[in-house]
Amino acid sequence: MTSAHLVEDDEQQIQASALTFLRKFQPQHPESDQILFCKTVNYLVSIYALSVPAAQKLVSRAYGELKIIDERCRLDLDASTEHLAVITDPESGMTWAVPIKAIVERVIEAPDNCRMRLV
Question: What is the DSSP string of 26-92?
Fold first, then answer.
């Protein structure tokens, strides 16, 4: 089955299946999104007989949804100041006020911080 043969309802159903697969196996690959992505593509190819490009397109869309779900907290720019970051989770209604000093000490200057780079 190629993407040209997929109707919109089929794509939505298969994308939902990809999202379910991503959520199920994400804990097994916490440090490697690429492995999880490839496993999901292979899953769609084998289960739905999709071409690799069609599967990649649907997995990309599902992966975007997954990241939105996982990263639902937002910085509230209107409520934040130069010394305080206000973070909200619209889904739960929770709000956190985090001093910028704490972010610098615990994230940016953390001894095990190898991800943050000076730009």
Answer: GGG-TT-HHHHHHHHHHHHHHHH---HHHHHHHHHHHHHHHHHHHT--EE-TTT-BTTEEEEEETTT
